Each structure stands twice: as C-alpha cells, then as structure tokens.
Fold each of these.
Amino acid sequence: MKLQTGSVDRAGSVPTAHTTRGTVRPEGTSCQAMVAVAWVVSWLGTSAVFDGAASSLPSNQRPERVWFATGFDRPEDFQDPEWQGKLVRGEGRGGGGSLQVYCASSDSPPGSKVITRTLPVDAARGCLVRATAWVQAEEVSERPRPWNGIKFMLAIETPRQRMWPQADMPVGTFAWQRAAFTTRIPSDAKTIQLVLGLESVTGRVWFDDVRLVVAAEPRLAPTNRSDRPFRGHPLARLRGAMVSPDLDPEGLRVLGQEWGANLVRWQLVQQAAPGHRPPLESYESWLEQALRKLDAALPWCERYGLYVVVDLHSPPGGRAIAGHYVASNDRLFSDPQAQAKLISAWQQIAQRYRGSKVIWGFDLVNEPVEEFVEEGCDDWPALAERVARAIQAVDPDRTLIVEPAQWGGPAEFVDWVPLPLSNVVYSVHMYEPHRFTHQGVYDNDPPVRYPGVINGEWWDSTRLAETLRPVREFQQRYRVHIYVGEFSAIRWAPDGSARRYLRDLVELFEAWGWDWTYHAFREWHGWSVEHGEDRVQTEPLTPPTDRQQWLRSWFARNEKPPWWQLPRGSGPEPRDP
C-alpha cells in the first residue's frame, strides 16, 4: 500500500480505497448488538450437490449454497426470537412484506436503530459470502462518517480482529435498489451477526429479500508438495527494486551496474484521475503502449544483469484510486468480460515474451481487491488459476507470481491456499504499520518513530516478525517460495526511523530466504533512498543517504544471473526495438 504524486506519478494502494464495500473498519466504530439464526439449507443436502458433477464445473458456474435468506413476507418472520430488536413490518417491493426501520429526526445527535441476528459460523468459515438485499429509503440524513448511514452489514469477530464488511449505500430518498457486498469469512471466525438498520443518521429505510449465499467454498490445499520449493531462478537471492515504466537506460545502469541489484519489478501501470474507469474497449491499445516500454527496457536489463518481474499493475476493469493509477478493483470481479480480457491479455504477454531469459516471472495482478464478486464471476483464487493455466499453455516454464486478495498484505495469507499448479511463487507487500510507513502522505498527524509506540502499540523487530508470521507459516506449511514485491517507509520518517524499519524488515526477509524488491527506485521522491529526510528538499542528496548506503550494502551481496556474461562497462549498446 503506497502512494506517489508528481511528474512520475505511479502506482500505489491507498487507505481510502479500504473504505469501500466489504472492508475492515477501525475498532469501535459501531453496531455491536448480537444474537443466533437457523440455517436455511441443510449442510448435508448442500454438500451432496457439490460432491457430484457440479464439482467439475468452473467455479463461476457452480451452484451457490444459501447460508441465510428471508423475504419478511410471513407474519411469523416478525415474531422470530432469533432477531434482536423490534421488527416492524413494511410494504415489500413486490407486494409482500419488508423490514422497516425508523430513526426520528427529533433525536439530537442522531441515534442508531439496528436489527441483528447471529448467523451459524461453522457453515461459512473460510468461504466467500455474497450478501444481497433490496433497499429503499426516505429522508435518510447525511452520515457524519463514511461508514455510518444505512447498515446492511456483517459484524465478524475473530481472535485477531473485528470486521464490518457492508454494502455501500447512498443517503437521502431513493426507490428500491439492490444492495450487495462480498466478504471472506476468516477460518477462525468466532461470531458473525447480520446487521440491518440505521447508524448515526435519521430517516426511514426498508429491507426486502435479504439473501446470503456461499459464492465460493474453501479451497483444498494441494497434496503434491515438493521437498524443494520452486524458486524459478538459480541464485542465492534476488534483491532489487520496483521501478517506474518511465525509468531510462541510465537509471537501469545505475541500479544494475553501480548499485549491483539483480532484479527489477517493472510496472504495467495505467495513470488516470481518481475515480476514472477506463473502458474495456481501450485496454488493448493501452497495454500495447505499456509493453513497448518494456520491450525497450529489456535489452538494457540484460546488459546490466537485471532479472525482470512483469507486474500487471492495472488489469482490465479497474478504477483509478487516490494514487492516480488504475487499481485491481471495481469491475475485475463483477464483469465477466473484464475477467476474459485479463486472460487474453496474459496470453498476449506470454506469447510476446515466451522463452525470454531476462524475465524471471509474471506477477498476475498487483494487489487484487475483491470489492464485489458478482454471480457468474470468479473470485481471485479461481481467476488466478485460470490466468495461470492460460499462461502455462503458451509458456509452460515461466515463473508465475501470485499475491492474495485483499491488497496482498501479510494478514491475507492466514487462509490463502496455494494454486494447484507448478512454477508458482507467492508474493507479499509489507507496509505495516501503515501509520508509520505512510505518515504525512495523506495527513498532517504528528510524526511517529520506529521502534516506538504506534497506534497505541509497541512496534519493533519482534512485532514486525509477528505481523509477517502468516506469510512465514504459509511458506513452511506448503513449502513454497516467498517474494516480497513491495515494502518501504516514507523518507521523512523522523530521526532515521525509515532506515531502522527497513533494516529490521530485510533482516527477516534474509533469515527466511525471501527474494525482495524495495519500493521504489527513481519513482516518486517520497520513497526514494537517494533523497533525505527533509520533505521540502526534492532533489537527490550528495553524498549518499544512510538509507541508500544500507540498500546498496545488500545489493553488493548479489550474484548476477547465469546468462549475464558481459563484463561491466563494456560491450555494444542495446538498440531500441
């Protein structure tokens, strides 16, 4: 998760993107009344459906198991003791009943009125759940905070965290409209409550045809595990940096020759104003332009002994976020055409670079975000498998790099399961704690130091190791190789904090045998190790900063790829293709 601005504006996940539907909200922000519900479909009957021919269908064609559903049509629905709160019957959208919730405008400040029901946890652990309902509203007041307002939500509690995935609903007055969200239920979930109503607003709202279905069952772990994890290269370690697609040959020379890096993560990234949704019809032309930049860079990467990760930072169907780039969100999981275009794009890339010795691997999608997985679309594990198989049909020996949803962070490895394929390396992005690594990027909060107390908790190397523990356990459990595609700390973190944070992280990566690319080299100056702690100073410093010296000390340990035979500083100049 990162942001950049300025003339080389590039990729970056941003916290604002995490306030959309189906996300985790900060602690203590709402609606925590709770209780228990009956399961509408018997587990045995549903399992029988999936044990037969249906299991051989593509995931987006398999029947979905109903977890809970109600239309509020029967009188007994309003006498059901499983609900907490007083149920008031309203008129439904099809002439039947609905649940009506009202908060008076005389309340000051506006209060909250929610109806809750506890759901059967065992029936959904590890599953992707799609929640849909029909909602209409009358004079719902403005919400004081983004997560307030009309609540169609699940409240999930685990030993590690509390989560509030919910539908993104408007305010004001509107006729019946579909509300929907998807969320993955953690395998260690303790309690789950369905929440319907109003929070910190006034007005009236109606709910009808509430339906929660299991859109994807937990994936089974592959049984054929190699004693030696697939790494895709013969070197002791890959150490390098993420770079802008506008990095020039001189920059590649400095990184590969002077500094000694042996890897770059090359972004295929589309820039756009926040909120913009580029049409699918223009995706091929944009991709061709992006690949031409890569074509021009590959001979220089070969000359300077740099393996390349091809990172699809902007897949089809995305929406631009606050980092001014088109992210892996929005329609990618709600539009079958976007998913089909993703597969065809990778087939094109695989054919173009088939057999290229310079390319270490293909990073299938940067920081995938399952904002909403629509019926008829694959979730990320299923889509990643389809993309991977399409690539392997063209270039069977190519290393494939996969990050888990959401956003590729360490916590997402808790329930992540390897793909049933060979030649796969798994990638994590590490920016925790975000309050430290991104300080001053979006806010003017007081500076924080590392090690130190951050968000009320002590952060040091032990805490970093604990944060990365799900990734380490995933590595050990499945005997796979880990690549840290991104990690960083903003350069103006006070009193040398950024260098100490980076030092502690890389020592962990090295101890665990992980390859890594620092974010970023000659991209936005905020992440640059060539710039100092003074955020006003936007020119590189001479002599080198302590962070640059630290990074180069690790690169000095690198081996060059076996195909790199050219002595440094000699040989013919590459030609543009």
Note: The first helix runs from residue 43 to 51.
Amino acid sequence: MAKKKLSVGAQSFVQIGRDNMIYVDKTEKIHEVMQLGVHNFIVRPRRFGKSLFLDTVAAIYEGKKEAFEGTWAYDHVDWEAEKRPVLRIDFTLIDYDNNSLAEGLTSYLRSIALMLNIDVSKSNSPKDLFRDLIHTLAREKPIVILIDEYEMPLTDYIGEDQKRLEDNIMTLKKFYGTMKGAGQYIHRSYITGVSKIGKIGVFSDLNMLNDLSLDPRFTTLFGYTETELRHYYADYISEAAQNYQRTENEILAEIKAHYNGYSWDGIEENKVYNPFSIVNFFQSFQFRNYWFETGTPTLLVRGARQQYISLKDLENLSTNADLLQSANLKDFYGVGLLFQTGYLTIKKIEVKGWEREYTLGLPNREVQASFAKHLLAEYVEKPVDYTDFTLSHRLRSHLENEELKAAFQVFAPVIASTGYDVTKHTEGYFHTIMHVLMYSTGLTTFSELQNAEGRLDTICLGYKSIYIFEFKLNGSAAGALQQIKAKNYAIPFLNENKTLYLVGVNFLAAEKKIDEILVEQWNGREFVRLEGDFTPLEEGEST
C-alpha cells in the first residue's frame, strides 16, 4: 500500500481526504468541544492547526459525512441532528492594509453575502452586515459561527501604528458585540487566535466566552502526541532513519529534541509536536527551524533585549494562572504573551494550597536556537542574516570540527558590537551575551548548570566534543580554568566518548574585548593545557 501524502500547506479537511494526505484524527476531541457552551474561545501558536480545526468543525456541521470515512466521527456523529448553516470569518482574507479595517471587513462580508445570495444592500457597516448575515442564515435553525485569527488586525499594528490600532479595536468591539444581541440565532461559535492580546478589549460586549486555552481536556487538541506521530507517520519515520543511517529510535529522539515539547498541562505524555515543522521535516528530511521561519517575533525579541532577558532566564520561569493568561496592548513583552504565542511552554504545574504555580521554559531546540539568533542580533545590533551565518553557523561548524582558534575568533565581533554602557553592566551581562551566542548554534547548550559545589557558566555539547566554559570580567582566564576544576564541573563528563575541553575566558569591560582564552583538554587521566594563542584578534589585527 502506497504511503499517504504529507499535508504541507493544506488547511481544508475535505482536501486532505480527497488527496490521500495524512490526517491525524482529532475528531473525537473536536466532537467533545462541540458539546460545550455557546461561545468557545481558544488560543494556540501560529501554524498549529487552528484553521484545519475550524474547517473540520465546519465539515461536521455541514453534514459532509463521506469525507470523514476512516475517522472516529464517521460512526459516532449524529449527522442529521448536527447539520446546520455555518458562517465563517477568516481575518487572514480581509484587506485592511490598503483600506481601513471597517472598509475591508465590509467588502469581505459583502462577498460572503453575494456567494450565499443574501441581500445586504441596506447594510453599510460591518456590524449591520454581520447581523443581517446571521439573521438570514438562521431562518430555519440557529447557525454556527467560526472566526479565525480574531486578533490579527490588532497584532499587525502593535508598536507600528497606534492610531490604526485604536481604530481597529473600536471596529472589532462593535463587530463582535453583534453576537451578543443575536444569541437566539446562534447555536455555537468558535473563535481562535494566536494570543489573548485583544480578548478583553474587543470582547467586552461578548463577555460569556468559554475559554478552552488551558482546559485540561483539550491539551492535545492541537499538535501531535508521541503516539500519534509514531502511528500516522510510521512510513516517514522509517524513511528518515534510512536517510540518516540511524535506527528509528535514534531519529525519533532527534525529531523530539527539535520539534516536541509544547505543553498546556505540564504532563509528559501530553506534550505535542509542532505539526508544521513535522510535515516540513518529513518532506525534506532536513532539521531546519520551519515554524520559527514563518514569522519572526520582532517585538517580543526586542522586549527581551531591552529587559536584559537571556535564554537561561526563559528556561525556568515561575508564574501563576493570571499572568499566564494575561496579555494586553501595553505590555506585549510579557510572559503570558511569550507562552500563548509558543515561545514558552508549561514544564511543570504544582498545586500550592488553593493556587497553581506554573514553571515555564523553552519548548525545544528549534525555538531555543531561533530565538537565540534573533536575540543575538538585537544584542550586537546587526541583521539576523549576519548573526545567523557569520556568527551562529560559523561557530557551530568550528566547534563541531574542533577548530578552536577559529571558533573563539567568532567571540570578538560579538563582544565588540554590543551597544552597552560598561558602567551599568556587570559580569552577568557579558555572560548573557555569550550564553545567547552558544544557544544560537543549535547545539545542546546549558547555562548555569548546578552541581553540589557551584554553577558552571556554560556547557556546549557537540556530536564529537564537549566544551565547558567559565567567563570572567576583569579577571583572568587562568582563574576561570581553576574554578572549573576546583568546583569539579567536568566530573560528570569525564567518561563520555567525546573530546572534553575546558575553556577559560576573560573579558575587559572598558576595552570591550576578550583579552585571554586558555584551553585544557582531558587526555583520559588529567587535563592538559593546549599550546597556542586562542585569544581572538580584534578587527584590523593580524597574526
């Protein structure tokens, strides 16, 4: 039997079945959602299947039973009882860049009315058009309303055009308020978005939303669980293993490190893979940062830089439910927004008295490396293309090939390019920059790893080698090496079948440069100082 096709770019449930594409069956959970309250709201990161979810809901309500053959829904849905009119609003299809949002929304709703042969000639505002569409479609039965990317006209203008942002808030508030007055005509509504950035402002009139974003029943409604990945993509897993000449368990471990780790309840078995990255990986069999490349979080990265947030700070954040679910138009750098948009995820939930404490962290290697590259670009005040190739890619290549002199030369432009006032920053500031640089390589990197005697600064794990770094400010590289050995930081790695290096680095704050790097290598019995000058040259210097 021929393997099914990958659903790259497909958001139509009917198309996926018609073209023999892989569909990870979520219909049982979707049907469970359909039994809930009238107005249902859920946020998930972009490219996590929200549009496909809405399209599947639409197909059930439209009675397209034959399209569901082979899924749970085919034999379990009461198709005649569920059938009713569906009105779908997709903000990705509305032109509000060249016109006002009110004009774009008016044109969009008129096109829907024309397609449905509904006379709206007497309606001139989005609110009136929406009302007339609802009333007309609901003449026989209350209808279902589906709204995709509800907050997109807001997020597109945050930090860019305050006047347009305020106008769009008012337009959306009136538009969504229509649904409150049309309650008797609405059977269900399903509203999806990437964040809660506009929830309070634009839904103030529609104040009875059933927020499913952290509902424990639906934590795996979007994304692929480990079980789903192994079942539906078995043929592709086998092909990937052959492509890399690895066992299936080995390739699965690498796929998991790159694309798994998203969680909305902190339970290990409920962690999910990013579906967009998965289908793109199986199409090319290349480990790339597919999801991150579809939309750079410029404002979030810039906010992290302005607050001196490092990747290590994002690995272990504690918060409560209120902060986790908050997001507003003034504080768009907040932890809640980083979580909602997929750059942080729930690592653990602890019940303390009557409260729940959430521990957040970066979900996987894709997010870690990509966020680091963009954060590094902010620190060194260079375009991300420069940091990606000239810094991150080069450093990874040199570390992997154990080209130490060349690897450490990458440090020089990073330190020299940082726009900072040395009188306001301490050793931790330099550490932060170096940590971000290491994370950006995509190699497994740990910062401030704790042992019984202290915390080592940074450890970077390559395929053939391990690098343990200690950084000093206005001290000495020899002192940094001595600390690594005195604190026994290297002991857990002595028996690894990899070359083990200790690297001591000293910064000079006033000169904004590295003045010395010393390296020792484990020979199986002891650490031996490597000969040669590893200190990076400044621009314009020559050997």
Note: The longest strand covers residues 499-508.
Amino acid sequence: MIRVRLGCESLFPERSVAEVCGTAGEVYREAGGRRTLAFERNGRRFFIKCHRGQGWREICKNLVCLRLPVLGAKTEWRALRRLESLAVPAPRWVAFGQQGRNPATRCSFLVTESLEGTRDLEYWAREIKRHEHRPTAVRAKWALIAQVARLTRVLHENGINHRDYYLCHLRLAAGREEFFRAPETWQVYVMDLHRAQLRLRTPLRWAAKDLAGLLYSCQYGPAGMSLTSRDLVRFLRIYREDWRKSLCTERALWRRVIRRLCRSYRREFSAELVLPPHLRVTGPCRAAEADGKRIPELTDAAALPFSVPVVGSVPLRGELVCERALRVRPGKRLACSGHWNGRPVFIKLFAAGFSGDRRWRRELHALRQLHVRGIPAPRLLHAGAAVGGGRFLVCEYLAASRTLDRAWLQRTEPGRHRALLRDLLVHLGAHHRRGVVPRDPHLGNFACTPDGIVTLDAGDVRLLRAPVARRAARANLALLLAQFPCEADPVGMGLYADYAAASGGETGKLDKLWLAGAIRGARRRRRRKVLRKAFRNCSAVVHRQDRWHRLLCDRTCYRGEMLNLLADPDAYLGHRRVRTLKDGNSSTVAVVQVNGQQVVVKRYNIKGWRHALLRGLRATRAARAWRNAHALLFDGVPTARPLAMLEHRLGPLRRRSYLVTEFVPGPTCLASFGLADDGAVPDQEALYQVSALLRKLHARRLQHGDLKATNIIMASSGPLLVDLDGLRRFRPAWPPQRAIQKDTRRFLANWKHLPDVEGRFRAMLGG
C-alpha cells in the first residue's frame, strides 16, 4: 500500500515499498531498523524514513516495559496528519507506504518535505547564551519561551505527546537578523514524531515526560541555556491559563517532571542533581534543601558539615553548623547535631514548601505545649526560616543522654531492664494524664538522662484538651510495649499497675489479658511496617530503581567504595585478591573490603534459561534474604546486618541478584564443634547458646529452611544465623510444629559423626 499526496503523484511513480525504500541519497541516520536520508526530485528536496521492522525481541522488550513499540512509519504519518488538521507547523508529508502483516518484519516508509532555512532550537539557544546580556537576546529568549509553551499547550490539549520532546526536535524558520530583531515573524516546527502517541487526552505520565525532556534539554542539554524562575513563570502562564492554581492542584504532574529531570541527569552524568533554587521553591519537588544541598543526600561524610545562616536580632545571628546527621526523612526533614555560636545544639531542618512549613508549625506548637503541660522535653532555643529555603528548629543538646534503645542494650545487669521499663511506663502515664498521645512511641523518641526520661520527637505527638480515654491509652501503651522483645512482655504487664497509677486510671481484672493480645497485634502491625520500609526510600534505606536495576542500600553505607561495588559487583567477585568463601553453581560468596570494613557479597546465580524463566517473575533470593534479615533483627534473633541488595532486571523480569551483608568473624558451628580433637569435651556454654538461638527462632514461629551447622556463625557476641533466603514465618492460624521438627532434624543430622554433641543438642532441643 502506497499513498501519495494529491499533486505529488508524478514525483513517486514507484509501485512497491521496496522500490521507494531503495532510493539513493545522503544518509543522516541509520540505527534500530530505521534509516533516514535526504534526496532530491525535480529540484525539490525531501527526507525519507525507511522502517525495516524492529524484530520480536525489541517488541517484547517494549511490551514488558509497558511501552507501545514503534512498528513502522504509520505512527509518524498519523501524527503529521493530526498536526496538519490543527494547523501546527510540522514537516509536510508527501508519501507513505507499508508492506507486510508481520509486525516484526513489516517494511514501511514516510516521505516529508525538507524544512529549508530552519535550524534546531539548540543552535538558537546557544546564540542566546552567547549574547545573553544584550537586550535583543533577552527579548528573543522570552519570545522563544512563549513559542515553545504555545506549541506544547496545543499538543497536550489535543491528546498528542511527543515522547522525545527535546530542543533538537524543534526547528525555527528564521534568519539571524529576524531572530534578534523580529520575533513576531518566527515559526517553530515540531519534527521526529515516529514515537508520538495520539489520544483524546494526554495522560499525566506522558505530559510529564515531555515537559521533563524539554526542561532537561534547556537547562542541562548541549544548549545549556539557564532558565530563571521568571522564565518558568512565562512558560507556565501560556501552558496553563491559571498557572498559580496549576501549581497547587497539579502537584503530581510537577513532582513527576522534577523526578524525571533528576533521573535523566543521574543517567547522563552518573551523579545526583542539586536542584537550582527556582526549581526548589515553586513546590513541584518535595526534596528539602539546606544551603543548596538536598536533605535526602546529606547522609554521608561528603555532604557534612554544612551551615545554615540565621538572620534575626543580634543575639540570634550566626550560622547553624550541622555536623552529624542523626535521622533523615527523605523529602521531609533532617535531624542532626551541630553548633550555633559555639554552643552544641540539636537542629531540625524542614523541607521548603507548604508541607514543610506545616510540619514545622506543628512541631513548634507541640514542643511549646509539652513544656506548658509539664512533660520533660529539650528546651527550644530558636525557630525560624533558612535563607536558602525551608525552616529550622534549634533545641538544647542533651550531652549526658542516651536514647532508650541504646540504654536498653547497654543495661545487662539483672533488674536494670525492669527499672528502665518502669520509668518509661510512668513517663507515658504522665503523657496520657495530661492529654498527650505519642503516635509512634518507639524507643528512639525517648532519651534517658540523669534527671529522668525525656521526650525527643515533639512533632510525632497528638495533643488533646482532656486526659486520654482509657481504651485509647491502653492501645497506645500496647504500641509502646510492642517495641521491646517478646521476652519482655511479662515484665511490661507486671508493671501495668505503675502505669495506671501515673496515668490516673484504674486497673481492671481483664486489663492484662486484653493488653497481652493488644501487644501481639501491635507487634505484627509494626513488623509489617518495618518490612515495608525496608523496600522503599526512607530514613534508613536508599531505594533506586529503573527498568534495568533495583537497588536497596543501608543509608549509612551508601557512599564511597560501596557505590563502586554496587555499580559492578562481578568485578569485585572476580578479583584475584578477594577471599572466596563459596563458588558454587547456585551462588558465589566472597569477602570484600569496602569503606575500610569487610563485607560479604553473595551472588545468586542463574543456572540456565529454564531457571531464568522459573525465577523471572518471582521474588529473587536476594530480596527474600534482605527481607528475612530485617525480620530477624526486628524479632531480636541475631543475624548479620544486611547492607545492600541489588537486582538485575528487564522490566518486571528478575535476573541475577546480589546481597551484601556485614562480615562477622568467627568459625561456623560445624567447625567449632565438629572439628574438635578426639576426646575433647564441647563447651557447654556454647552448646547452650546455640540451642537458645534455635529455641528463640522457633518460638517466633519461624522456620529456617536450611538449618545446616555451617549456617550458624559462632561470633564473639554469640551465635547468629546466615543464609536466610529460605526463612519462613507461620501465621497464628497455622501450626508450625511439623516445620519446626523438620528444622530440628536437619540440624541434628549435622552431628551423626559426633554422638556426644548430638545427644546434648537433642536433650536441649527436645528433638
């Protein structure tokens, strides 16, 4: 099938698509089954695009990535016809043809007239930058922004998205004199529409892609034309009639634009983009800023220290020097320690924008209310707005304090845990009596000082005008007790009377029974929340994902050599100086030196194409081990701390995966007990520690799945479990006795050659 525009039949007498595609001319581009060349006929210059078919592999790759594949020249032909009906300047089509039913091998072509006397906008952007201080160049820049905004608005309002919307695909029909002197005579053409999509309405996703591509090519592309906040306002005033309302009601669109801009910059320059101020303060990006640095990236030594100027009266002037990040909430706030005028302080920085201001006002009000109601909290020193955007709170630094999670781990003497828990319950009872409810009462929000327990996070409390109701108070108490290991539940319920006395309530007969069930339910909900956070960007985890990779990394390790390791783990595993622990068919394990410490890198191999098909749509073994390691640490079962997880992907299909954990020195359980000299008596304390570890694992309804003695490391602090990709948790309704017995039998099978060790373990485990 060949179609020729009326009046141009004599220019294309060919009868087949192959004849037209065989036209000789000057080749401009040839890649991906598509060839573009220029030729002349009857003194007129034309361009022809010949499509030879993408192949099933390319088609499947696009479908897997949820994109429509480009099957030929028909897409661009339909787009040019739509633009012609809308009177949008574009190359005029002359001939179109396609042949073949198989979409993978279909041949097609499109002939368009040459846009003589035009140059792409990248050229004119460089000219503007070269003469940016001249009034004529400034007027030309404004006119160019208006023309592009008007063209973009027409495209998106009529359901057309370009999908490759850069300055190099926009051409301007004007000479140099007309460009600087008569911008009203300009005409901007849009070209290269072979990927364009036509709909009744442009989806949010594709509008954001076009806008991000246009902004990237203007700001960071080869043209390098810097845009100010006024330039962006000029664009928005034409692209959206009510641009102020658009910034408030279409925040999802502008967040997507900034997110895609940062992704393009990271892919091109292999670095994180520091957004200029006019992209920070307009509201599309939720990334908080502090003196030009993004809060989500202020987690490594390279980003700290930094300073925030303080403007105010003479006693309040100076600079806040943030030295050490204590907690990062990506896109929301940064908590750190530092100095202000030579005084150690605790600083909280909040993101610029409406949501950041709201959080700042809420925490400022809550902190003042805590002092008014007599709740011990850090003293507020100053609160204000940062010069570079965002707001801050400055509180006194409690030098002689420890958070309760650290205090709990450091108190090993008998009775000290009970005393600490009693003080905390009395402190919580005072909260409830004065109408203060901590929304997330985890141990990091409380500090232990010589004067007693202090509430640290004032922004995470709910203030009431009356004492907390009894049912809500007990639910909040259960949420607090769920932060402790389950072995501490009897101690917490035994101290319920002290809490009731501090809160001003009464104790009932069924209170402890109800509290035990509430603690179990709160612990399950908290476990689910912790495991969800392990797979997203948060204060503890860095999450990066594209169509080829998925990366999860502990935020404290996301720096230096760890970035190089995650960029190419195979280069480290194949190095001859690396100590290899295992090189099997299913996995490869090695010890690598990263950032001055030893880590264990485990690669889960793909055995063949059948194995790749079976594993492609399932969770990788590295992802399961990452999740299970966080679950064990939450439950108080010792294991090696997970540091990073990397998956190689093809869209939704999983391929090879990697897991990085801390290296724990020490022999395996088999080497510690099984390789002893003949007649040697095994260490009774070590035997008891291993059996206690297995009992703790099974008491939490967990099955290891591969309980070999080599998967237990005898560290200096005690035994711990490794190789967790087969770990399984049983729900309360499912009896785990058979799975636990299977685990026990597998563990006892390691000691068939040592009857004495097997007998002692059997007596301790009841196997």
Note: Residues 135-157 form the longest helix (23 residues).
Amino acid sequence: MQRKNIIYNKIIVGIVLALVILFSIRVETELDITLNNYYHVTKTDVRNVQIPISFDFTPHVPIEIVSDDNFTDYGFPGSGNTTHPYIIENYIITTTDYAGIYISGTTKYFLIRNCYVDAEYNSIYIENVADGTTSIINNICNNNSIGIYLRYSSGCTLTNNTCNKSFDGIYLYSSSDSTITENTCNNNYEYGIYLSSSSGSTLTDNTCTFNNGHGISLEDSSGSTLTDNTCTNNAWSGIILEGSSGSTLTDNTCINNNNDGITLISSDSCLITYNLLQENEEYGIYLGSGSSSNIIHHNTFIDNNISGASQATDEGENNKWYDSETKEGNWWSDLEAYCTYNIDGTTNSKDKYPLNRAQNCLNPAVISTISIVIPVLVSLAVLALVIPKYGVPYTKKTVIPYLRKRKAEAERQLLKASLITCPNCGNNIELSSQFCEKCGTTSPEIRTRLIVRHKKLKNLELDELESRRASLNRIQIFAVILFVVAILGGVPSGILLGFALGWGGDVGLGIFLVILCLVFIISIPLIIIFVIKPNKKALKIEMIKRIQ
C-alpha cells in the first residue's frame, strides 16, 4: 500500500513538473512572439497596437476649431495669449475623418501637446492661423496622409513630435519663419519633413530615416537653416534644397541614403559646412544646374559614390569647395596622396585645400605666386641679356651718333638759313632785319632773299619735326621688340609652371596663368606704344599747320 502511494506521488509530481515546464515554454514562446510582433509592427503598422500605459491619454472625438470661440466651446484651458495659450493635451484621437485635430482662421495662441492622433488623412491640420500663435509639442501622429500639416501659418513651433508611416511626416506650405526641432519622421511613404514656400525656417535636431523619398526637402524656401539633423537610410536624398537660396546647412548627418547625402538644385549662395556625408549611394553633395556661388567647406566625405571617381559633383557656377579666408576645404576619405581633390561635373571644380592632404603639398596660393613671379623674372632675365648685348651697343654705335649728326646738321642749316648777304657791301644780314645795318640798303633784292630764306627755314623746321617723328618710330619699334621678347620669355615659362605647379597639373589653369603673366609683363611696352601714338599724331598736325 505504501509502495503504491509512493508511485502515485511520483506520478503526480511528474505530472505537475510536466505542466510547469509546458506552461513555462508556452509563456516564453508567447513572450517571444509578442516581442517579435511588436518589433515587426513598429516597422510596418502601428494602428492596431495598444498605446503604452505610460501615456496617460484620454479618448476624444476629432477636434475642429474654425474660430477663436471654439476653444472655449471645447472647454480647453487657457486664455489664448502668449503666456496662457489654449492647451489641447493628453488626448487619443482615432478617426477616419479628414483630420484628427483641425484648426483654421484663429488669432489666439494655442498649444497642442502630448496627444496621440491616428486619422485617415491628416493627424494635425493647421490652416490660416495668425502668425506665431501655434505650438505643437510632443505628439504622436502615425498612419496618415500627412502627420502634421501647416498651411498659410507662419512662425509656428513644432517640437519633439513623432510622425511615422504617413505619406509625409511633417509638411509646411507657405508657412515661413517656423521652427522645427527634435522631431522624428521615419518610415514615411515620401518625405520625412517637407517645406514648400516656407522661407526663413529653422530645422534643428530632427531625425528622418527610412523614408521612401527624401529625408528633408525644402522647395522655394530660401534663407532657411538646417542644423544637427540626422537623415539616414532614405530612398532618395538625405537633404534636398530646390529653389532655396541663401540657406545654411551645418552639422547634419547624412548616411547611407540611396541617392545623395545633400542635393542642391537652383539654390544659390548657400553655406554647407561641418556635415557628415557617409556611404551614400550617389554623391555626398550634389550641386545641380542653376546652383551658383555656394560655399562648401569642413565637411567629411566618407565612401560616397563608391564606384565613381569623386564623392561630390558640381554642375553650377562659381561654387567654392573651401573657405577663402582660412584656406581650408573638406575631408575626403579617397584623397590618398593628392594635394587637391577633383569634383565631378561640368565646371571641373576642385577642393584646393583638402583638410587631409599630405604635409608636403605646397599651398596653392604659394604656387599661384610662384607661377606669376617666376615667368616675370625669366622675362626680365631675357631682357637683361638681350638689351645690354644688342640693344645698348646698337644704340651707342648707331642711334645716338645718328641723332647727334642730325641735330648738328639741323643747327648748321638753321644758322645758315637765318642769314643773307647784302648785295651792295657783302655784309651778313639776319632774317629779322629789314635792311643792311652797314650800308643801309633796303633794296627789293633783300626782301626777295628774305622770302627765299624763310621758305628754306620752314623746310628745315619740317625736316626737324620729321626727324623727331622718326625717333618716335624707332622708340615704338623698340617697344614692339620688348613686347615680343616678353612673349617669348613669358609663354614657355608660364606654360611650364602652369602645367607643373598649377594645382595638380591643370593645363587650363596653366593657360590662365600664362595670360595673367603676359598681361603683367607686356603692360610697359603697350603703355610706351600707346603713349607714343598721340605724340606722333600731334607732330603730324604741327607739320600740316606749318606747311599751310
């Protein structure tokens, strides 16, 4: 009997242990399934997931406010001023209506806070409210056409909202000077955050990941500021600006986007600095057509466009990929031992001052100076050899004696032409006299001789002017020779230095340096040539007057 009881007890204990084990396995399995389902749901659909208990929401019907009086009709606390706005908070609104919270045409200040809104189209829709009266803080807006939609409502504040799995997470249209901070917009069908015609807005510390379009998109929203935003794993670009000139993009993180990290289209005079651009499928930064005068420096490019030749492209004009004042550019993971970084695109842009270039690289400013100074020195050296050896001896041997001989002959001729002989007494009479002082003769023959002598003197004066003109011609010829020598000395040295030292062997830049050198070198001969031309013209006019 006792033995049977022991057997029964063992059987009962075994059954109990088996039940405990089976129950434990089932609980663990159900827990795993629950956790897996929750993870899966958070990646796909949250509409059927229970709201966490920590969110103390109160169920509420859709809210529609179309006048200031409606705030009090709903019984919302507050007085509608800046210090005591009307407060809409701690509600859970699930609806198939057009909007969960709709506010339009109001002038009072209001705050939407700590609400969970799941609507068929728009979770929170604000339209035509007075500037600066709207604050939307710490709300969850999922599974909508648009999570938070603002139209014609400028100066709004959107902070710490979560807008996931909608068509667009946050969408502002004609709502300028708004502040969008610390919002999370993930897994949206198109854009995480989209601003259209909303200039002067500020976007800071927002997270936009796994969106099927762009992470952050600004269209016709000039003068905006984007700082410390994280845009990763988006199907298109991390950040794109189109028609949004004068904007600033600083300290943003754009990683592993299927298109570009940062894209600019028809956006001028933007400042792009200190951004991390890593492992984007296309370029780290893409400057499209119509994007000019942008400044890009102190950005970090790591493994973007991995199959291409460059991590950035430039299709615009006059864009600078470095800081002109500090002479500092960007950090490039594929720079290797090069001193400059070539940017893809039609403009052949370069980062002339990469932050991670080799220590032995010459500063491009020094190279530029050398490329100008050395051709000048070479040309001067050529002139220094040519002029003393050929120019000075020729001048001493031929030009100066010739000029002295012409001058002495002209003086003799002038002196001879200025005297006539008296036909009566043979005395020399000056042209200024009308009679012979020795014998007093005033015969017609003296007057005739005076007229002849005047004509001869006039011809001699014309000869002297012609001689001066010939001298100017010789000086002009010398200036032309100087011009030719400058070209012969400047062109080869300029091409050589431009090719060898011109920022990575850029032939185009070498040609530019040659032209610059020539302009500098030949300026003196050209000045000589063009100064002499007016003198020759003045001499010709004087000669014509004297002949007449």
Note: Residues 1-5, 20-54, 501-507 have pLDDT under 50 and may be disordered.
